[in-house]
Each structure stands twice: as structure tokens, then as C-alpha cells.
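Hi there,

I know you've been waiting on this one. I reran it after we fixed the sequence typo, so this is the corrected version. Both the input and the resulting structure follow.
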Amino acid sequence: MAKATNAELEIRIQTTFEMVIKGCSRDFIIRYASENWEVGERSVDNYLKKVKDKIKEVNTPEKKEELIDLAISQMNDLYQKNYTIQDFRECRNVIESRAKLLGHYEKHNKQKAPEFSVYDARQKKE
């Protein structure tokens, strides 16, 4: 087969990226590439290296902040939509998820709850 063009390489790398993200094994990717692109293990390993580099490039601390901001915006939108249709249970789930994302949930759960028993309640009544 003739050498792939730059455009074809980009499509192959993007397809490999999507397969990696979906959890496909190296063997699966090799089989797919062999059947669809007529390339061998060495080419697939080159694609996988480029995919790993792309993943490292995307997962910088700055990108993490952007993703958190995006997730919070999406949660706010989801909360509004659920509130509009009066799905308050889902609203509560969105609030909890947002708190977890922001780190408030763990801080709150680390605080020890005050000890309380039915016996204590009876004593207070008397």
C-alpha cells in the first residue's frame, strides 16, 4: 500500500485516540488497523505513541482548570433544567456532584458527626 498522506495519518491518529479513550486493547487496535488501513504493529505503535503524547498535552494543569470550569457550567445548566421540570431529586444529585467536584463534599464528610442516641433524647425530655 502507498504511504498515507498527512490527512490520512491525522484521521488514523484520531481514530486510534478514540479507541484508546474507549478502552480498546492494543491487540484490538492492531487488528482494526490491519483490516482497515493495511498497516502492521510498528505503525500502530507509532500511532499509540502520538496518542499518548496528545493525552499528555491535553492534560496540563491549565486544561484541568478549564475542564473543571466547564463541568461546573454544565452542572449549573443541568440544575436549572431539572429545577424547571421540578425534578428536585436530580437537583440534589447535581448539587452533591458539584460539591464533590469543588472538594466541599470531602471536607464536610471528614467532620465527625456529634454523638447522639435515643437514650440521650429521652434524658433531655425529662
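Quick highlight: DSSP finds seven helices and no strands in the chain.

Best,
R. S.
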